[in-house]
What does this fold into?
Amino acid sequence: MYAVLSVTDKTGIVELGAGLRDLGALVVATRGTAELLVAAGVPAIVVGDLSGVPELMGGRVRAFHPSIFGGLLYRRGHPADEADAEAYGIPRIDVLVCNFTDLAAGGAPGAATDSVDVGGPAMVRAAAKNHAHVLPVVDPADYAEVLAALAAADGRVAATDPAWRRALAAKAFDRTAAYDRSIHRVLAQPADGA
It folds into this structure.
């Protein structure tokens, strides 16, 4: 089981990472999150170590790779998906923990555009779409419940409550929709000199 962690709000992430490791997960994280985890004694690798491609373009391209999105989207037990996962070495990502901060409405549209998180919301959408097999976790307030549910299910996502997984997916899509609205608010402002 892989758990991918990519968070702006790092509240509780060390404890969550340690708990996921205790449940047998291999923790994969974006660079800043991985550095925090490792400094706290929680073994973690960076996303590029899993995908085989380092962060590119100053960190603008991190997770866009079939090993990440395939791991989030493939349906366990689906013959064609299982064959693709086997053929291309796509890992089974069972947990995605990802959050991002609304853009500051007072910033300059050009600077805000450069701060737009593209990969995080895309990973959240992928995990939420496949919530039958992947836990999409976007809120630090849910970390303790995630660990408890996985512990009760012996680390098997499919053995957790389907209604709970659906609620996590609904929250995830709500969070990405709010993020998109924050981007719209910033870009809808008149540009300097306009």
